[in-house]
Amino acid sequence: MIVGYARVSTDGQTLDAQQSALKAAGADRIFAEKVSGAVTDRRQLAKAIASLNAGDVLLVTRLDRLARSTRHLLNVLATISEKGAGFRSLADAMIDTTSAHGKLIIAVLAALAEFERSMILARTDEGRRRAQARGVRFGRKPKLSAFQISEAVARRANGEPLTDIGRSYGVSHSTISRL
After folding, report:
1. Residue ranges matching CATH 3.40.50.1390 in the chain
2. Which of 31, 34, 98, 138 could form a disulfide with 48 if both were Cys (CB 3.0 to 4.6 A apart)?
């Protein structure tokens, strides 16, 4: 069975052209919705994928109707593949997981996405290390000054209750207990 999926971003747009193209390409059932492509949790897309069985094909008119990023595309394609189904895009003939050529293209896209992700992580880690070397502190700003911390530790050592210490500084007893 061929399951079609059509999507437009706004209510002012129409799904007619996509639905006609999907029907002409042999779609037995079409799921359609008006929602931004940036939204990854789309109700009709989830229903379309849930309706797939082994040997079925999810069909879209253009790749950008399915996903806006390589990462999202690969996640959707992995879900489709897990069901034993295939994927085709009418306007992007090279994206066709029902053919050996299409599977190769998807594998290359997956490798590029993984490479891109590792490069982003490396750059982020490098930037974080440089910032720390310059003295930049990460995380939430401390609620208490160094003087207040030493004072609170001393008060705690003298047996004063955590809640009383916390109340005097305007913080919770949990903040004091972590000192």
Report:
1. 2-102
2. 31
Q: How would you class 5 by CB atoms within 10 Å of its CB: exposed for 0-12, middle for 13-18, buried for 19 or more? A: buried
Q: Is 81 assigned a catalytic role?
A: no
Which residue is listed with tokens 């079609």?
Answer: 4
What sign does the dihedral 128-130-132-138 (CA atoms) show?
Answer: negative
| Long-range contacts, 33-40 (Cβ 8 Å, 24+) | 33/6, 33/7, 34/7, 34/8, 34/9, 34/10, 35/7, 35/9, 36/9, 37/7, 37/9, 37/64, 37/65, 37/67, 37/68, 38/68, 40/72
pLDDT given for residue 112 in this prediction: 80
Amino acid (one-letter) located at 120: I
The amino acid sitting at 2 is I
Spot the catalytic one: 9, 69, 150, 177.
Answer: 9
pTM of the model: 0.61
- Classify 2-102 by CATH class: alpha beta
Q: pLDDT of 110-142, one tens digit each?
A: 788 778 878 888 998 999 999 999 999 888 888
Per the structure block, which two tokens stand in for 26?
């042999």
